[in-house]
Design goal:
With 346 residues, this protein is an alpha/beta fold. It contains twelve helices and twelve strands. The strands form two sheets. It has a six-stranded parallel sheet, with helices on both faces. A six-stranded mixed sheet has the order 7-6-8-9-10-12, sandwiched between helices. The protein is elongated. Beta-D-glucopyranose binds next to helix 2 and strand 9.
């Protein structure tokens, strides 16, 4: 009789656990997973592109595996406090994995503490947190790119054009490249590193430079247009090179150049290779850009989130460096290489 009761209790326990969603280790993998994604600003062009690409890869993964992937997505509107609250809500809503595009890269503590307490892995992306924070727990990851490469590519694009035809670039013929810099955002890893390496690469290539202006335009096309319009009013045709930390700001500078009807167009270099950015390279208004691999990053983010949630290994084409990082190289896009990227976002 006692034995019969014990068997019944065991059966009940197994049935209850099986009904709890998350299967026991060693049993069937889950049929549905939930991913919470919070982005610093849902209106950022590059971040929107990452979101779009993520959704596409997610749909493909669902078709391949039959697993339903529910995505809860929030925009933090530029507030770290809002983002912290969103992460708390993801935990309450039973997300298996949380993906965070940090508002403030120096302020990841809250996100990490909450996630660790709930034992939910976090994949940070695009806005690289400080290394010590990433070291705080063994279930923290980062997907992004090597900022340094993008700055170098900008410097090389300009140096190449100078080598081809210095007289065309050096409008006033003084042998010095007068440039303006549109910076993304105070303290953003990409902004700081791109600003430094674009110019230092050009100098290392043997060109003398003179900075006419350098200001923050928050990755924004509209803000960059305003700055560039002011600079054109101040410096007239003296601007020979426009370095922009991203394509949107390069496009803002181009908007101002078009309106100002400048006689000689400066070199304008961006970063990202967004569809609109590549279109400007095609039209010849943008000299070149460094392709920030939104496809690779979005796919890696999705695959990493998926494998963590499913308790499966990451597909072989993605390698976790130091057990934490997945980064993608930037690629040079100019009129000469554009044809390689025609179908990049298709
Ligand atoms: C991109 C920018 C974007 C920023 C947002 C950068 O990597 O190049 O276009 O605005 O990330 O964090």
């Amino acid at each position: 009789m006692k034995k019969g009761m014990a068997v019944l209790l065991c059966a009940l326990l197994v049935a209850t656990l099986a009904g709890c969603g998350r299967p026991l280790t060693g049993t069937e993998p889950p049929k549905t997973i939930k991913i919470g994604i919070s982005v610093y600003d849902q209106y950022d062009t590059f971040v929107s592109l990452l979101n779009e690409r993520f959704d596409q890869f997610k749909r493909e993964k669902e078709q391949q595996t039959g697993v339903t992937i529910t995505v809860l997505r929030e925009g933090a509107g530029g507030s770290q406090v809002t983002q912290n609250n969103q992460v708390e809500a993801f935990i309450r809503d039973g997300c298996d994995i949380i993906c965070v595009n940090l508002v403030d890269r120096t302020d990841a503590a809250m996100v990490i503490e909450k996630a660790e307490a709930a034992n939910i892995p976090v994949v940070f992306f695009n806005r690289e947190l400080v290394e010590e924070d990433l070291e705080r727990w063994n279930k923290l990851y980062y997907v992004g790119a090597y900022a340094l490469e993008s700055g170098k590519i900008q410097g090389e694009i300009v140096a190449d054009r100078c080598r081809q035809n210095m007289a065309e670039v050096d409008i006033n013929g003084d042998g010095i490249l007068q440039y303006v810099m549109l910076e993304g955002e105070a303290g953003h890893q990409d902004a700081v590193v791109r600003t430094e390496y674009s110019v230092s690469t050009l100098i290392a290539e043997g060109y003398a430079v003179e900075r006419l202006e350098d200001e923050i335009a928050n990755w924004s096309r509209a803000q960059a247009e305003t700055k560039m319009a002011q600079w054109l009013a101040t410096h007239g045709g003296a601007i020979e090179v426009v370095f922009a930390n991203n394509d949107d700001m390069a496009l803002g500078a181009i908007d101002a150049l078009k309106k100002a009807n400048v006689e000689r167009w400066p070199l304008v270099v961006g970063i990202d290779g967004t569809p609109v950015g590549m279109q400007a390279v095609r039209e010849g208004t943008m000299t070149g850009t460094a392709l920030n691999d939104a496809n690779g990053q979005a796919q890696a983010l999705m695959e990493l989130a998926f494998s963590l949630a499913m308790g499966q290994p990451l597909p072989a084409e993605f390698t976790l460096q130091e057990g934490k990082y997945i980064r993608f190289p930037y690629k040079t896009v100019t009129a000469e290489t554009l044809n390689l990227y025609e179908d990049f976002y298709k």
